[in-house]
Each structure stands twice: as structure tokens, then as C-alpha cells.
Amino acid sequence: MSDPTREVRYCAVAPIELREDNGQALAVTGYAAVFGERTAIGPLDRWGWEEVVEAGAFSAALDRRDDVTFLIDHEGLPLARTSSGTLMLSQDQRGLRVETELDPQDPDVQRILPKMRRGDLSKMSFAFIAEKETWDESGDHPLRSIGSVRLFDVSIVTDPAYQGTEIGLRSKAAALGGGAQLCRRRMQMRGRLSGLR
Asked: Does residue 9 surpass a pLDDT of 70?
């Protein structure tokens, strides 16, 4: 991802459901995001923060009909896409629901299908830019609340937590009014002051 403001988050609490129809279609459903669940981004004892996606955060993206792709680990050719009608996204009280039917003849689907059956690929993720967010630094750890996003893709993933953290760091720097370099220098100073180096 070349866009420094694009972020990736994964959702480990909502499993993907896979239904097979005698080799004709593979129905995949799951949640790419769950509302109200706090997630630690980075090490909370050093520079990290907690993050929560607020209910309704995807309303603008869905109303705008953002062209969202369904990918594997946020890379490669799309397995499905909202603009072609092969990917359906909806928002309910739980979060961002994903529904698609994959073509079992597609080589990319054939590559991931055994991993999905075994549960090796069982998490979902979303790539976004926060359009509305707030920061609360009054608690033990900063809390970022995401109120609205521009949505790029939903993905079936292994575990992209590091990738999301790195991108999130640049996002926090922008949200606090400084560049990534300023944020890194602040973290280095905090580390030195606490004896961490």
C-alpha cells in the first residue's frame, strides 16, 4: 500500500462462514469489522493506543457506494467487487457484514479454499482511511474512535496486525497535527525518559 493514510485492521472475533454448493458456488459471509470492540494498536506500554470502530462508521461509504474489492491479505486480483455486484456489504448492529459467492474454478479461490476449510484463513480485515475520528488521551492509553471511513477493500487474512500498526502510526501523527517523523521523535524521547531506548 503506497498511500500513507490508508490503514488496515483485522477482526479476529467474527469467524468467516463458508458454505459449498456441490462445486457450483462458495458462499462466504463474515464481518470485516465489529462495532464497539476495543483493539490495541501497538504496544500500549510504550507508544500504542486503543481503537474502536463506532456504530455507523460505514454508513457514508455504503451510501457513497465506494468501490470495494474482496482480496486475499489486501493484495492481488479481486475475488469479488461491489461495483460488479459480486460483493455485498451491509451494516448491522454488529458491524460491517460481508457476503460473496466465489467461483470454485477461479485459481485464486482454489489456492485459498483448503486453507479456509482448515480454518487457517479465518479472519477478515478492512482497508480504510478515517474520515471522522476522535482521540481521547485522558485515560491510561490514548483511545481513537473511528466515526466514518472511506472503504477500499475487505480481505480474508492470516494476521496483518503489524502492517496495520505501522500504517496506524502514520495516521496518528497526522491526527495529532504532526508528521510521522515528529511522532517517532516523541516516541523515542518517551522511551529515553523511561529508560527503554
From this structure: no
- Residue 14 grid cell: 467474527
- Kindly give, in sequence order, each residue whose CB lies less than 8 Å from that of residue 154, ignoring residues fewer than 6 positions away: 32, 68, 69, 70, 71, 87, 89, 96, 98, 124, 125, 126, 127
* Beta bridge pairs of residue 33: 96
pLDDT score recorded for residue 18? 57
Query: Which burial class, exposed, middle or buried, applies to 184 when counting CB atoms under 10 A from its CB (0-12, 13-18, 19+)?
Result: middle
Q: What is the spatial distance between Cα 77 and Cα 180, in angstroms, rounded to a whole number?
A: 30
Separation CA 70–CA 125 (nearest Å): 10
SS3 138: coil
**Inter-residue contact 133 to 113 (CB < 8 Å):** no
**Residue ranges with strand state E in the chain:** 7-11, 17-20, 26-34, 39-41, 49-53, 69-72, 75-81, 87-91, 95-102, 123-136, 143-157
Q: How many CB atoms lie within 10 A of CB 181?
A: 9
Is residue 108 scored above 70 in pLDDT? yes
